[in-house]
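Sequence, please.
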């Protein structure tokens, strides 16, 4: 088993190399076997391949992105180029260099009033199968379309528009709804908290504040993507 050493591993995201806490990746190949009568051997095996990357950074390490849902056959703009050079002990170094990694989700969190904000990003890309032999290859999609994004936010950080990491399409419009949550426990001092949660359509992610003394907050958004194959 190889061991990856963080002090020797470098990460570049759209050219940015600082402020990353952790990163993980997964190249998943999913077989779809075509079974046939009278045999326990598949007739053919179809293979699809996806690359998934998740990273956590200090708030502000990556630049924000304005989301533009697809209105025609064009690729999503919610992308970043990610380069990973992972040095290992007991194995060969791992290198990943992928342009146009599509953002699936984003979240911002500052849970400690005197702590720092962090941002988490998850990415996905549909790849050509990259296998040989008796397999049916699935190519890269012709287009990857972006849908409308949904998100939620709570807390008092910054000015209440983008400093919590997401921006609502209509901040005070009819499509933003509010809920509440709170908790408290017995004891000394027996403190708790209460906050308003806002949910709405999102048109920008990223740009959360690294610090804002005495305040907490969090946000999250999902960015739906649909691969489209045109023969």
């Amino acid at each position: 088993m190889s061991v990856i050493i963080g002090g020797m591993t470098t990460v570049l995201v759209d050219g940015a190399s600082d402020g990353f806490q952790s990163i993980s990746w997964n190249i998943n190949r999913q077989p779809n076997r075509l079974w046939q009568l009278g045999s326990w051997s598949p007739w053919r095996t179809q293979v699809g391949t996806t690359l998934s990357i998740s990273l956590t950074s200090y708030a502000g390490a990556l630049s924000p992105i304005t989301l533009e849902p697809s209105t025609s056959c064009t690729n999503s703009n919610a992308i970043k180029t990610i380069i990973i050079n992972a040095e290992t002990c007991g194995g060969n170094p791992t290198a990943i260099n992928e342009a146009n990694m599509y953002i699936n989700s984003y979240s911002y969190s500052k849970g400690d009033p005197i702590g720092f904000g962090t941002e988490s990003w998850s990415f996905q890309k549909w790849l050509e199968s990259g296998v040989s032999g008796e397999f049916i290859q699935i190519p890269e999609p012709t287009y990857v379309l972006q849908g409308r994004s949904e998100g939620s936010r709570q807390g008092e950080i910054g000015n209440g528009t983008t400093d919590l990491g997401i921006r609502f399409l209509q901040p005070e419009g009819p499509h933003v709804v509010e809920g509440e949550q709170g908790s408290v426990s017995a004891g000394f001092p027996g403190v708790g908290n209460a906050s308003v949660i806002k949910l709405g359509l999102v048109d920008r992610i990223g740009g959360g504040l690294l610090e804002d003394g005495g305040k907490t907050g969090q946000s999250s958004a999902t960015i739906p993507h649909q691969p489209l194959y045109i023969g």
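The chain has one domain: 3-228.
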